[in-house]
Design a protein that fits this description.
About 50% of the residues lie in helices and about 10% in strands. It is of the alpha/beta class.
């Protein structure tokens, strides 16, 4: 018997005289030389690994509950398998419907079924509110699809051509989306003869959540940001349409999104003849599926709390389904709330049932809005909870400047708290809305269960008194408080404080970069111990995890000049030239001493004299 019997997902690396074999041999990746391995590594650095359907990041992503959404899943899988036999074959299916209708769950379950049947070529799950933030941007889309081709044993020949492209042109990842598509996907497909048993479908979920990168421009209005998002979404759609019109492109594509105007216009005006539309409405009997879901979830609660088999009544379940108005997110959120530990399940169910029946004719989201409002008001500090959520999920302030990733929840908590333990107090009853990492997890960020919460928070007509007009106000209040106190409110060990300050100075821009609106904030620095912060920048500059030394040099330069009057900046300029480089430890210490002495001297008038250099 072969030593590889029953093995799959195997990597064979090196030459055949000295081969390292790991895993199993049903899915083998052959990297015969160092150049191919380097190309794989280069490609890997430009993907959004969390956007793949089976990524660890998506382990808690919604999927269809067993025996639910069967009709629509069967329709999708049947089209993947036999769509070419239809009288008028279509290359694209657009799955659409209102927020909370279960699109992502359907796409996740369809991806799993397709993979088991050998039909899935690749996929990309966009997400603007959870997971790694590179799942928001178009720049990761084509590299991620190409990477999955490389890893698929059924597309091995295509993968080799993709790696050759990366090897020849590592700058391909900086090209326009259409160029990336042509060189990384279409050109390799043109070079090979396709196996009839090759995968058949590409899945793209959450296209409406694709966002345009800001590239440091934080001054865009919401309207400008929305237009930029639409431009990127349309660029993706036009690129995919071009692919389906290429004779060498063998795949069908399923795209799921909300029916946003720009996306709807594209499918109506540009892709009408190549697209089949599936709208998640009553045709697919969502009420029956939601009832099945509720039956299963209430059965779990009955077992845990030893409740009667008749709990709750059929009328209660039917009312929950009616309140959902076809939105799966309503029953999913309601059940997470009822499963919570803040009160016995019957009491929490009574709270949900007591919500006034909403008229959905004017606002189809009225029942969901009432549920979100009730859950947020269950927080000890509802408005503060709304301010925190708005700052974390509706602004870019609490993100890594370089990677656009959300900062770890632990750091965010320390940054936002005005007193120790405040985060646990504010978020205590919000576990049905927010995924909160354990306190000993220092790397994972806060994340939401569904984007519909951000839609709710940024619409004053929906969230009412919980609306936060300007999340930046809280950001700058906490920013300046940390400057004043030389650290967060919570007591930390010396090492923890050093790590916090390092992250604080690594990820936060000086106030001058926010423009003239924040000059008043800048002026407050005069009353703080700026010399201490310069020395802290020096320590962070030497920190073993320092990823951007230039950032600290810029910060020191900024601090150095901020504490002086406009006239004394001449001295600063000459002093900087005189010390040649503030990147040296001696130079930074001198700057700190000089800043301290000048800050103390600012109380008296001072006219600078030329300093030789």
């Amino acid at each position: 018997m072969s030593n590889f019997h029953g093995a799959h997902n195997t990597n064979i690396e090196g030459n055949m005289n000295n081969t390292n074999i790991e895993g199993d041999v049903n899915n083998i990746n052959h990297y015969h030389d160092g150049r191919s391995r380097n190309a794989v590594k280069e490609l890997r650095e430009h993907i959004a690994a969390g956007a793949m359907h089976d990524s660890a990041e998506r382990c808690d992503a919604p999927k269809c509950h067993p025996e639910t959404r069967v009709a629509v899943q069967d329709e999708l899988v049947g089209w993947i398998e036999n769509g070419d036999k239809e009288e008028e074959p279509k290359q694209i299916i657009w799955v659409t419907g209102p927020a909370g209708g279960g699109k992502t769950a359907i796409m996740g379950s369809t991806a799993e079924t397709s993979q088991k049947k050998g039909l899935l070529a690749c996929c990309f799950f966009f997400s603007s509110f959870t997971g790694s933030t590179n799942r928001r941007f178009k720049r990761c889309l084509i590299p991620t699809l190409a990477y999955q081709f490389v890893q698929d044993d059924g597309l091995r020949d295509v993968g080799e051509h993709i790696l050759s492209c990366v090897e020849r042109n590592p700058a391909i990842f900086e090209k326009k989306l259409e160029v990336q598509l042509d060189q990384l996907l279409l050109q390799p497909l043109r070079e090979i003869r396709r196996d009839a048993q090759s995968p058949k479908v590409i899945l793209i979920d959450g296209l409406d959540e694709c966002q345009a990168e800001q590239h440091g421009d934080i001054s865009r209005t919401r309207q400008e940001a929305a237009r930029a998002n639409e431009a990127d979404q349309k660029e993706i759609l036009h690129a995919l349409l071009k692919a389906t019109n290429d004779p060498s492109f063998p795949f069908r594509i399923i795209i799921a999104s909300r029916p946003e105007p720009a996306i709807q216009t594209f499918f109506t005006e540009f892709a009408h003849h190549t697209t089949r539309r599936i709208f998640l409405d009553d045709k697919y009997n969502p009420d029956a599926d939601m009832l099945l879901f509720l039956e299963a979830k209430f059965a779990e609660i009955r077992r845990e709390y030893q409740l009667s088999a008749s709990w709750p009544s059929s009328d209660v379940k039917q009312t929950l389904v009616e309140n959902a108005s076809g939105q799966f997110i309503y029953v999913a959120t309601a059940m997470r709330f009822i499963e919570g530990a803040s009160a016995p399940p019957q009491e929490l169910l009574d709270q949900v049932m007591a919500l006034r029946r909403q008229d959905v004719s004017a606002n189809p989201f009225a029942p969901l809005d009432a549920l979100y409002t009730h859950i947020l008001n269950s927080s000890a500090k509802p408005l503060l909870a709304a301010r925190w959520l708005s700052l974390i999920f509706l602004s870019y302030h609490l993100e890594n400047l370089e990677s656009d990733k959300k900062l770890p929840a632990r750091f965010t908590r320390l940054f936002l708290e005005s007193s120790p333990g405040e985060a646990s107090y504010v978020f205590r009853d919000l576990n049905s809305l927010v995924s909160i990492p354990p306190t000993d997890n220092h790397t994972s960020p806060y994340s939401l269960f569904h984007k519909s919460l951000t839609d709710f928070l940024e619409d004053r007509s929906r969230c009412g008194s919980l609306y936060v007009a300007d999340p930046n106000e809280l950001y700058f209040t906490r920013y300046m408080q940390i400057w004043k106190n030389k650290g967060p409110a919570a007591p930390l060990s010396q090492l923890e404080k050093e790590n916090f300050l390092h992250q604080f100075m690594e990820h936060f821009r000086p106030l001058e970069e926010w423009g003239p609106l924040f000059i008043s904030m800048e002026q407050k620095l005069d009353s703080y111990d700026v010399a201490w912060w310069v020395r802290s920048q020096n320590e962070s500059f030497k920190h073993p995890n320092c990823s951007d030394q230039t950032r600290h040099i810029v910060n020191i330069d900024y601090l150095f000049t901020t504490v002086h009057t406009k006239a004394s900046r001449t001295i600063v300029f000459h002093y900087m030239r005189f010390t040649n480089s503030i990147s040296s430890a001696t130079g930074i210490k001198d700057v700190a001493l000089f800043v301290g002495s000048r800050q103390a001297a600012l109380a008296a008038p001072y006219i600078p004299s030329p300093v030789p250099y």
